[in-house]
Amino acid sequence: SMEKDTGTNTIPATGMEYSLYNKVGASLANNNKSDEALAYYGRALSHRPTYARAWLNLGISFANLNRYEESAKAYLQALHLSPTANHIWSYLKVVFTCLDKFDDVELCASGDIHTLAARLNMTFQPASAQEEVSLNSTVESQQEIEALPKSVAGVDVTFLGTLTQKLLVSTPDS
Fold first, then answer.
1. For residue 130, is pLDDT > 50?
2. How many angstroms separate the CA atoms of 84 and 2, rounded?
3. Which candidate, 100, 30, 51, places its Cα nearest to that of 72?
4. Which of 1, 53, 85, 144 gives 20 to 30 Å between its CA and that of 16?
5. How far apart are CA 52 and CA 78, in angstroms?
């Protein structure tokens, strides 16, 4: 069972791991530890790749670390999963401004996430209701978790770069 203690920072398996990891990440980010927060958002997304709030938080932490392109990609992924979250557009405009990508700032007004994604060489996976159901089933084993990252349950996360890839499989305290 996953209940056995595998380290001080391991959250017991309840089916709500994605939410708890996201909250730990947010706490770290709020204490100016955005770099440490990335690992927890990565773990939240390894449990639930369609969790828009964790993608948004990941984007905010990347922006705080001046990693604006990775931030833009995380924001776009959040918008893809949660199209009505209009406040994310203002975050996107900020990071595109920081990147001097003023054409992309203008594109934000059109709400065209697919053109913006193409300009960042990223692709979205459709977040179907069927996929969401399968994602809600509890991950059975550590091996399964470690097998997730390149395509986390069908959602391509390779665009987040090698650091986050590594964070998705590593424990936060390693």
1. no
2. 36
3. 100
4. 85
5. 5
